[in-house]
Design the sequence.
């Protein structure tokens, strides 16, 4: 059983990528909608909230935990790995940083203020490939724009242009979307960056790593015969959450509200 | 001792209005920055969070509570008044709705999605003056724009124009800013609405009501000789919170982080 969590329902973009590669792997999702967003909160608070969620997922029998939230990955992943050494904990930042180098010598990373100001992407990418030039940009308004479903608005395009101006001038050849909400703006972002920049998401890179991990397991969860039902939980349930979940997954799901 | 709370530090715009009328009244402020914003959360969750805060303010000796958060005022004020019948509870929505009628026959109210979709301003204003035409508009992006300090940006002006288009067409003669963050955008909003629309804030109307209440009290808190020190608490403390607090109050204050 894979436990996946995010500050909200945005992490379902990661679930979508996982299901693309492994349709039958059973998952339990938790979205902390009662306390979202995490991107503007302190390290200490994000660690506390993340621990509470991991306790919940563990109690549901999850052995593998996916931190689908970039802000939590940035400031709480190492903390959680130390605290829960018995669990296999993957996070979108560590996997997102594994950028394959084709012609790519200049990579851009965008995310929330918490993610970008932590400097973690830059550190991790440079550690894996010290010749890679890394440019980062916080885009704190992207999440509220997606949450408001302003995805096709001219105002949004203007804001995307403003945020990406520097990265465009740097001529990055790869742009990593370091926030679960950003794939919903992928079209506008790709349009603004132009054809020479390849846009990739941290979710697709996480799904690849998860598949590799599971294939290495003695019990191959990918091949179990009667897959368990996927379960979706949130700490606060509103119509907007349901709508966004449907928009991301392209289907209706049952979401249950629970108090942690 | 007056206890004032908001989902974040935005409620300090209400503190500012109170201090303008009553510089010496001692206050305790609580901003729930670990769980903000409230505007996109459910009624049940907002009621739970508000109760926890009122318990805290009560434990600090507050007899009068000011709900500076419009979202909490909209969905939790009556609930809190019933639960804490021993306290005098004022909220920015009930006081904001007392719009004096000059030539004003058409009033516009803007706020977060939670505030506007609750319909409470419309209901309260119509109850006080059934001849008043009330038009409302949710402006969910205003809070993140203020939080990001995009107060003087052309993108912000464009978004303000988009949100206010309908109210401008209705030719409202009064516009009530029904969210604690909006006074920080007052200049842009006034500019977009034009000279014929008077822009008022819910904070200034609350301060007037509070002064009237305190004057009616047997012990006049306004006239105590050695005022207690004001105290400011938040549930999560970041530099951004401190910066916004300073921007609102025009001075540095000591803010203490506590867990509820």
Sequence:
């Amino acid at each position: 059983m894979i436990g996946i969590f995010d500050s909200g329902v945005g992490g379902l973009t990661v679930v979508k990528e996982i299901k693309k590669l492994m349709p039958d792997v059973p998952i339990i999702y938790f979205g902390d909608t009662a306390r979202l967003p995490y991107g503007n909160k302190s390290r200490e608070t994000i660690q506390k909230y993340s621990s509470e969620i991991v306790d919940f997922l563990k109690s549901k029998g999850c052995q593998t935990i996916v931190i689908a939230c970039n802000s939590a990955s940035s400031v709480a992943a190492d903390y959680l790995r130390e605290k829960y050494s018995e669990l296999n904990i993957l996070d979108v930042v560590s996997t997102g940083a594994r950028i394959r180098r084709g012609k790519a010598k200049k990579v851009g990373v965008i995310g929330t203020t918490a993610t970008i100001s932590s400097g973690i992407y830059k550190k991790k990418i440079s550690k894996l490939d010290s010749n890679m030039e890394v440019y980062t940009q916080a885009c704190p308004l992207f999440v509220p724009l997606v949450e408001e479903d302003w995805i096709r608005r001219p105002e949004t395009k203007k804001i995307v242009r403003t945020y990406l101006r520097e990265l465009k001038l740097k001529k990055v050849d790869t742009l990593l979307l370091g926030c679960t909400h950003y794939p919903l703006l992928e079209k506008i972002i790709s349009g603004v960056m132009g054809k020479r920049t390849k846009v990739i998401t941290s979710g697709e890179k996480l799904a690849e790593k998860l598949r590799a991990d599971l294939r290495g397991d003695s019990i191959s969860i990918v091949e179990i015969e009667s897959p368990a039902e996927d379960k979706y939980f949130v700490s606060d349930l509103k119509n907007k959450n349901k709508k966004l979940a449907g928009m991301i997954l392209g289907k209706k799901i049952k979401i249950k509200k629970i108090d942690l």
